[in-house]
Amino acid sequence: MKQMTQPDQALSSITCLKHDDHKHGSFLNGLTIGFLAGATGYFLFRTKRGGKLRQDLSDEWDKAKKDFAAKGLLKDEQTSLKDFLNSLFTQLKTPQSAFSKKKIKKKVSLPPAKVKKFKGV
Questions:
Q1: 77, 66 contact by CB (below 8 A)
Q2: 85/73 Cα distance (integer angstroms)
Q3: Which residues make Cβ contacts (< 8 Å) with residue 37, sequence separation at least 6?
Q4: Is 119 helix (H, G, I), strand (E, B) or coil?
Q5: Burial level of 117, CB count in 10 A (0-12/13-18/19+)?
Q6: Best CA proximity match to 43, nearest among 54, 55, 58
Q7: Going by C-beta distance under 8 Å and a sequence separation of 6 or more, which residues neighbour residue 61?
Q8: What is the pTM of this model?
Q9: 7 by DSSP, 3-state: which?
Q10: Which of 7, 77, 81, 94 lies 20 to 30 angstroms, CA to CA, from 113?
Q11: What would the pLDDT profile of 57-101 be if each residue is shown by its tens digit?
Q12: Which segments of the chain does DSSP mark as H helices, in order?
């Protein structure tokens, strides 16, 4: 078995650190997003101010949907905010001619790969 030299050991320890940092970074990102979502949910559904904010948002949607219906953005004034957002996201997901991605084929020539052959122990 080949003994590792100091540069090899340093390189392997740096590689391990980068790999471990990525795992911890993903965990911390998920933890942070979960914490924020939980705090937002708690505020909106368990506090008086959150209840007032939800009511204000509902009242504003009632006003806005009348304007949207008048401009033709909604079929009728009975559309809920959830239905409106679902239809909006569906329209955004549907590729349209102006927004469709065109695949461009480029010919790229790469130099031939150098193959290292095993020469033994």
A1: yes
A2: 12
A3: none
A4: coil
A5: exposed
A6: 54
A7: 81
A8: 0.46
A9: helix
A10: 7
A11: 989 988 888 888 888 877 777 778 788 888 888 888 876 655 555
A12: 6-46, 48-71, 81-93
